[in-house]
Design goal:
single chain; mainly beta; Immunoglobulin-like; about 40% strand; elongated; Ig-like_dom_sf; Ig-like_fold
Length: about 250
């Protein structure tokens, strides 16, 4: 990790320090040899040179063999007799997963519901798993299972449910894995196909604008806009009659 700064020529008394989770782990004064401290005492490469300039030569923090417990908040501070400054950053070690799986099936508790399951195995640290339907519909997990072994490697599974009538077959189902405090992202995607024969009513679907549309007879997933418009009009008129009836009842 590098610490970038500027020192004016007239400044004296320069000292550079590195902290890990607010504990001092490295100190360098240009007239002396850099020193590792505390739990990093024997884990730093203190002779690593970043520059030939005397006030910038040993500014970097170099960990020989990064371990899982080296994840945390690092801070570099520089000071002279005239000035002081510091910067902090989060360093997160990620052990990539061995497997990321995405699966869907009929929900055992309700025939109308689709159960979606996303599982990740042997990853560090604990990741976030997000279920996405149709590219922009985020499912709230109905259940989450997390386990970790003695080496702090995580297995995690999230479950989500959605009413099949809200899906236009075929539609995409995805799972996005992210690791907090890092740019690590992995994705899995599959396609849901409705296995139900396309009868008159099973072909009725509601689109993202709330309009009813009817799938074409060939079952290829193409929408019939005219039929959908007529059905939407019928539903609107039915609702208008109900509203009128309710209004008359109140009077």
């Amino acid at each position: 990790m590098d610490c970038q700064y500027e020192i004016k020529a007239r400044e004296c008394g320069f000292v550079l320090k590195w902290y890990f989770n607010k504990k001092l782990i490295y100190q360098w004064i240009p007239s002396r040899t850099p020193v590792g401290m505390n739990q990093f005492k024997n884990e730093l490469q203190t002779n690593y040179s970043m520059s030939d300039s005397i006030n910038y030569k040993y500014r970097a923090l170099v960990i020989r063999n990064p371990k899982l417990n080296h994840s945390g908040e690092y801070m570099c501070s520089v000071q002279t007799y005239d000035s002081f400054d510091r910067r902090m950053a989060r360093f997160q070690i990620v052990v990539p997963e061995k497997t990321l799986l995405l699966h869907y099936e009929n929900d055992g508790e309700s025939d109308n519901m689709l159960l979606i399951k996303c599982s990740v195995f042997m990853i560090y640290p604990e990741p976030n798993l997000l279920l996405i339907v149709s590219g922009n519909l985020f499912l709230v997990s109905s259940r989450t299972l997390v386990t970790a072994d003695a080496n702090h490697m995580y297995n995690k599974t999230v479950y989500g449910k959605i009413d099949k009538h809200l899906l236009i077959s075929p539609t995409s189902i995805g799972c996005v894995l992210t690791v907090p405090d890092s740019g690590y992202i992995r994705k899995r995607e599959t396609i849901y196909y409705d296995p139900t024969p396309l009868t008159k009513w099973s072909r009725l679907r509601m689109d993202e604008r709330g309009h009813f549309q009817l799938l074409s007879d060939d079952g290829a997933g193409q929408l019939n806009p005219l039929a959908g418009w007529l059905i939407s009009l019928i539903v609107f008129l039915q609702r208008a009659v109900l509203w009128r009836h309710d209004a008359d009842s109140i009077k």
